[in-house]
Design goal:
Blueprint (H helix, E strand, L loop, with lengths): L4 H22 L2 H17 L10 H20 L9 H5 L7 H15 L2 H12 L4 H8 L3 H18 L12 H8 L5
Length: about 180
């Protein structure tokens, strides 16, 4: 099977964004890599259904999303570590504040409903327009806008963000950086 060079290059250029989206969906880098690989394989097998001139990244994101949903439905009934004993052995305590903040963000993001998290990641992190995300998710643009707005509002509430000054360094670090003596 021969794949047009332009199509191949477009697929390869989308891999980092696909990987980031897959990680946001499943929260596990290894599973995300497998999901991206399976997405690319399915895309290659079904390349004849891709319409040249249309949005390759949106097509690939749709395949990835559908694969994830199918896998999720299959795994929903599995219970790997019901009491969390094995998970407790995997705990590592972060050494840096930014790592802690990232983990808090990831935990808050995981608390969002699937449809809101998906819309927020596609619009906010992957850079798709509302129209492109609506096409990927198979719903109206207004629905995506609503999901993103609700996701942002809930995420801000979960992270106790009240103003833009809540981002970045804490008060003491800001004082050190600005040269103020009062921290």
């Amino acid at each position: 099977m021969s794949v047009d060079t332009a199509i191949r290059d477009s697929m390869l250029a989308t891999v980092p964004s696909l990987r980031a989206f897959a990680i946001s969906l499943c929260g596990n880098v290894d599973r995300a890599d497998d999901l991206v690989q399976e997405t690319l394989l399915r895309a290659l097998v079904n390349i004849q259904s891709f319409q040249p001139g249309t949005n390759m990244p949106a097509w690939l994101f749709t395949i990835l999303r559908n694969l994830f949903r199918s896998e999720y439905r299959k795994r929903r009934r599995e219970v790997e570590d019901a009491e969390g004993r094995y998970a407790e052995t995997l705990k590592t305590y972060p050494a840096q504040t930014s790592h802690v903040e990232f983990m808090e963000f990831a935990a808050a993001l995981a608390k969002l409903p699937d449809d809101q998290r998906e819309a927020l990641v596609l619009v906010g992190a992957s850079g798709f327009s509302y129209e492109e995300v609506a096409a990927i998710c198979g719903c109206a643009v207004g629905t995506i806008k609503s999901r993103v707005n609700r996701a942002r509002t809930r995420l801000a509430r979960l992270l106790a963000i009240e103003s833009p000054s809540d981002f970045g360094p804490d008060r003491a670090t800001r004082a050190v950086l600005s040269g103020d003596d009062a921290a």
